[in-house]
Amino acid sequence: MAPASDDTRSAHARSVHADARSGDSRHGGHPGDSGPAVRVVGLTKSYGRFVALRGIDLEVRRGEVLALLGPNGAGKTTAVEILEGYRNRDAGEVSVLGHDPARRERSLRARVGMVLQECAVDPYLTVVEALRQRAGLYGSPRGVDEVIGLVGLGSKADSRVKTLSGGQQRRLDLGLALIGDPELIFLDEPTTGFDPSARREAWDVVRGLCAEGRTVVLTTHYMDEAQALADSVVVLAGGRVVATGPPDTLGGRDRGMSTVRFVPPADVTLADLPLPDGVEPRLRAGFVEFAVAEPTIALHALTGWALERGEGLSGLAVERPSLEDVYLSLTGEHAPEPEPEPGSGSGSEPEPGR
After folding, report:
1. Domains identified in the chain, total number
2. Which CATH number does the domain housing residue 92 bear?
3. Which sign, positive or negative, has the C-alpha torsion 80, 85, 90, 92?
4. Which of 154, 159, 215, 291 fits as disulfide partner to 37, beta carbons 3.0 to 4.6 Å?
5. Spatial contact of 174 and 206, defined as CB atoms under 8 Å apart
6. Which residues are CB-neighbours of 327 under 8 A, at least 6 positions away?
7. Same domain, 170 and 36
8. How far is CA 340 from the centre of its chain?
9. In this structure, is residue 130 part of a structural domain?
C-alpha cells in the first residue's frame, strides 16, 4: 500500500505543536496523574480489507522506555500514529497520559513531544531560530541553549537547517521534540543516519530524559538500540503483539540454549573433551562448539580439565540467543499477510508502512 506522505505527517506535527501554545508540559506531571503513561486495550485498525492491527494490548509505565519492534507492515506506524492522535482507530481503548488522543486536546498535546522520520522545519532557519520558534509555542519551554547542548549541535547553532547532514537533522528533530519539556516522547527511528559515536551520544540523551522522569516510546530497527535503551519491548507481527517483556527475557531468551565455543588444545580430539552426557560437540573453523541449556557444569568440567593439563582454552566464549535472534524467530513465525492491491476496498486509508 502507498506510504503516507511525509509532508502530511510533518504538517500534522506542526499543528500539534501549535496547539501546545496555551499549555505547559513540565515533566513533573499534572496533579492527580496516576496509572501508566500509555494504555492500549483491544486496538484495531483496518484500511479497506487490509487489517493493520488485530486487537493489540500494550502498556507503558511512566518513566520507562518502551521499544516497539516489528518488520515492515507489522502495524508499528499505525499504532504509534493512533497514540500520537494523528490517526483514528476502529475499536479499542487508548489512554495517553490519561487522555484519549483521538480527542486531540490541547492539554495533552502540550505534554507530548515527537521525533518524526523527516525534519519538519523551515530549511532556511538556523538551528537557533528553529528552536526559538518552536519554544515560543509553549508556556514553559526548556532553554534553547540547553537543548542545543543536549543534542550536540553547539557547533551548528548558527547554521541553516538545509546545510545540516542527515545525522545533524535528526539531532535537530530531537531538539524540537524536547524544547517543550514534554512528559512523553515518541521517537520514530531517532538515530537513522547517525554514525556509531553519535548513536551512543543520542542514547545518553534518552537515558538522561528517563532519569528526569520522562517516558519514551521508541520505534527502531536497531536491535542493539532496543537492548541498550528499553526497559520493555513489544514485538508486533501481522498486526498482533507476538511478545512483550524486558529485552533480556523476551521470548524466553534467558532460558534459551547457550553456545560454548573455544579453540581446543593441540592434539586433542572431540572424544577427549570431558563434556556432560548428551552434549554433542562439533569442530567448526578451528573452534569446538556445542549447545547446552545450562553451561555452568560443562564449563566447570572443561576449565578444570584444561588447568590440570596446564593448558588454556583460547577464545573461550559463552553466547546466549541475542535479541536479534529472538526477534527474527518471533517475527518469522508470524509473517504479515499480503497487503491488498492499491484501491481495493471502499474508503481505504493508506497504511504508512515501515
Report:
1. 2
2. 3.40.50.300
3. positive
4. 215
5. no
6. 69, 223, 235, 250
7. yes
8. 28
9. yes
Q: Which three cell numbers stand for residue 146?
A: 540547553
What pLDDT, on the 0 to 100 scale, is given for residue 32? 46
pLDDT tier at 81, thresholds 50, 70, 90: very high
Q: Across residues 174-180, what is the average pLDDT?
A: 92
Calculate mean pLDDT across residues 278-297. Answer: 92
Residue 307, classified by CB atoms within 10 Å of its CB into exposed (0-12), middle (13-18) or buried (19+), is: exposed
Torsion angle in degrees (nearest 10) through CA of 68, 70, 75, 81? 30
Is 186 part of any domain? Answer: yes
Q: Distance between CA 110 and CA 119 in Å, rounded? A: 19
Regarding pTM above 0.90, the answer is no
Is 70 exceeded by the pLDDT of residue 343?
Answer: no
pLDDT band at 202 (very low <50, low <70, confident <90, very high): confident
* Amino acid at position 31, single letter: P
In a domain, 344, yes or no: no
Tell me if 230 sits within 8 A of 66, measured CB to CB.
Answer: yes
Q: Which long-range contacts (CB under 8 A, 24 or more apart) does 268-273 make?
A: 273/302, 273/305
Q: What is the pLDDT of residue 12?
A: 45
- ∠ CA 134-95-101, nearest 5°, is 45
Q: Indicate the pLDDT class of residue 317, thresholds 50, 70 and 90.
A: very high
